[in-house]
């Protein structure tokens, strides 16, 4: 009698314990963000080199991506990497900018594709003289592990506005594919300002009001010396890039649409990269709390971008906003002309 009671208690304890552990696991998986990295699944034992050939199912690949990262971190042996056929490859496509255009969202969303592996950090190889002096081997080391049929992609938004970058990229690979994500220029300028403002506030520093920075006090015209304004004159930088690469090597992503309806934009990028269409609506879900689309890798693992993406912008004086829009208008027209892509910007 006493024995069966103990057994019953043990069974109950076991069932309850499993339930608690299971819920905890689901909670951890669902709440993951980009800041806390996705090494969640117990991948090592599930993976067999035989999985590698042919089309890799999306969920398997995410384990493999995680595995690559894990191997990288643990200083894995060459033998292990050879067995798994994981290698480092220079990027075949780069997200060159533009800062605050949605570069992080684009990179993360593209990494939902089984054939795309992303460099997690901004590499800053071509815009930083010190990094560039380390040579292309340094750059290669910064790339993630990937399978030979996959492509590596990195994003460093400063590339778009740094003069030396196009020539340096051309020297590495003249046929590389270039992704440029843009947003309505006035919104991008406000977003840029908001990021710097937040940085100052964290350091308990004061900062000028947006209106004071974008308008030149002496002329009462738009202040083109202010970097956040200059960066939004997309055509100015693109024309410089076109001295090195033909227009066909660029694909322009609509950053405003990537926010509201990301899938069509991602389909266009898949086409541009000559990848089979794999990212689907299943991989993207709207998170009402965040107010943005988040990423679903598989039934267990989904994540939203970190809180630093999607900041609340300060209110801007409507007349200043209009002035900026009028200022950007002719540059935008030229940008449409060059890229062959028209946006509904004012
Ligand atoms: P805001 O913070 O101004 O809203 P970048 O990664 O180039 O710095 O761009 C940041 C911008 O990406 C954010 O600007 C945000 O609007 C945009 N974004 C696009 N898709 C997003 C997503 N799914 N989640 C969060 N931010 C996203």
UniProtKB/TrEMBL annotation:
Q: Which GO terms describe its molecular function?
A: [heparan sulfate]-glucosamine 3-sulfotransferase activity
Q: Which UniProt keywords apply?
A: Disulfide bond, Glycoprotein, Golgi apparatus, Membrane, Signal-anchor, Transferase, Transmembrane, Transmembrane helix
What positions constitute the catalytic site? 100 (for sulfotransferase activity)
Tell me where in or outside the cell this protein is found: Golgi apparatus membrane
Gene Ontology cellular-component terms listed: Golgi membrane
Topologically, how does it sit relative to the membrane?
Single-pass type II membrane protein
State which residue ranges cross the membrane: 12-29
- Protein known as: Sulfotransferase
Protein's organism: Cyprinus carpio carpio
Q: What is the lineage of its organism?
A: Eukaryota, Metazoa, Chordata, Craniata, Vertebrata
């Amino acid at each position: 009698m006493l024995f069966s009671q103990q057994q019953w208690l043990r069974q109950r304890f076991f069932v309850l314990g499993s339930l608690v552990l299971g819920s905890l696991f689901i909670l951890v998986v669902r709440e993951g963000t980009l800041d806390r990295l996705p090494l969640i699944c117990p991948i090592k034992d599930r993976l067999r080199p035989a999985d590698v050939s042919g089309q890799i199912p999306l969920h398997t690949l995410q384990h493999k991506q995680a595995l690559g990262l894990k191997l990288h971190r643990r200083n894995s042996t060459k033998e292990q990497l050879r067995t798994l056929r994981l290698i480092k490859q220079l990027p075949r496509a780069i997200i060159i900018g533009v800062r605050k255009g949605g570069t992080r969202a684009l990179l993360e969303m593209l990494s939902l594709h089984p054939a795309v592996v992303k460099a997690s950090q901004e590499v800053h190889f071509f815009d930083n003289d010190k990094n560039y002096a380390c040579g292309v081997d340094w750059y290669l080391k910064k790339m993630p592990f990937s399978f030979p049929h996959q492509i590596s992609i990195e994003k460093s938004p400063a590339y778009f506005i740094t003069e030396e970058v196009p020539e340096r990229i051309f020297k590495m690979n003249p046929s590389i594919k270039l992704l440029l994500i843009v947003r309505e220029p006035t919104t991008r300028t406000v977003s840029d300002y908001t990021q710097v403002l937040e940085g100052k506030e964290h350091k308990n520093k004061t900062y000028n009001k947006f209106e004071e920075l974008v308008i030149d006090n002496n002329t009462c015209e738009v202040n083109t010396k202010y970097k956040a304004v200059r960066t939004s004159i997309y055509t100015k930088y693109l024309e410089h890039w076109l001295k090195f690469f033909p227009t066909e090597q660029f694909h322009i992503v609509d950053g405003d649409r990537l926010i509201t309806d990301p899938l069509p934009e991602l389909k266009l990028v898949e086409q541009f990269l000559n990848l089979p269409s794999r990212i689907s609506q299943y991989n993207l879900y709207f998170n009402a709390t965040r107010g943005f689309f988040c990423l679903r890798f598989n039934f267990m693992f989904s994540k939203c971008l970190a809180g630093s993406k999607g900041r609340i912008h300060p209110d801007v004086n409507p007349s200043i906003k209009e002035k900026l829009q009028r200022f950007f208008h002719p540059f935008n027209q030229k940008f449409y002309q060059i890229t062959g892509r028209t946006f509904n910007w004012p």
